[in-house]
Design a protein that fits this description.
This protein is of the alpha+beta class. It contains ten helices and 14 strands. The protein has a domain of 202 residues: Class II aldolase/adducin N-terminal domain (L-fuculose-1-phosphate Aldolase). Helix content is 42%, strand content 16%. The strands form four sheets. The protein has an eight-stranded mixed beta sheet, with helices on both faces. A two-stranded antiparallel sheet has the order 9-12. A hairpin with a 4-residue loop joins strand 3 and strand 4. Helix 2 runs parallel beside helix 5 and helix 3 crosses helix 6. The longest helix is centred in the N-terminal third of the chain and has 30 residues. The protein is elongated, with a radius of gyration of 22 Å. The termini are far apart. Bound molecules: zinc ion. Zinc ion binds next to loops.
Amino acid sequence: MQKRISGAESAKIALSTRAEEQVRAEIVEVGRRLYSRGFVASNDGNISVRLDDHRLITTPKSVSKGFMTPDMMVIVDYEGRKVAGDRDPSSELPMHLEIYRQRPDVNAVVHAHPPTATGFAVAGVPLTRAVLAEVVTTLGSIPIAEYGTPSTAELPEAVRKYIKAHDGMLLANHGAVTCGNSVFNAHFKMETIEHFAQISLVARMLGREHLLSREEVERLQGLRGMYGIASPAPVCADPAEAERDQAVCQVLEAPASSSERLVPDIATRVRQASGDGEIRLTYGELTALIADAIKNLRD
Ligand SMILES: [Zn+2]
């Protein structure tokens, strides 16, 4: 015998249907934005949104994010089993599932391959210098999760290490992933990462970066509370704290004294002085180069 649906229940169903339609439209819109900004090429990238405690909705595999329609989306449970939809979910879905498992506060995940940020991920250079106030207050630091073969359990495992304390990270030799309380919130964080990567690249090409001091970073951390900026973990700008597990804090490079704020970059320390391939370095440049190499070896 069919269960009769009360007025209140049918109103709830109508509301949730509307909410789902809205979510489908938002995913299509974010996909278009990722595509139009060149954050994805071909069928790259994937987006997911939490629908309720049992289901999430995600983009299908093998579809350009710039040309999706609301009916293409796939509904899956938190084990990744398809619940509804004509298509199959992306093979990168396990990374999304891991983020939802680790972060009950997260409602949406965006994964893309924005070129400048991905360049940093390929070079193995994390975006962890305290440079822009807005980035310090919103994302804190942007670490690099170790490389994992796509479609295997390696990628979710690599992401697990950082996701408790970070809303965004680079994925070594791959791309970037962000999460947030809505799909637009997660998308804006992806924009922030790419924008920050572009600015960092220009500053490094110009040969130096002025870092924010530790005191400034602490002041910005205070602003988070004042403006109600949600963050999964505090910023750690003290090197002693920086040794701590990145699962509990956002490790930022910020000097203790303002006289140490200027960081010259290695690329311009090596200058090609003549056409015969000879490289000339000053004594200061050579010692900085050696110090950097030793630091990299220790890391
Ligand atoms: Zn990818």
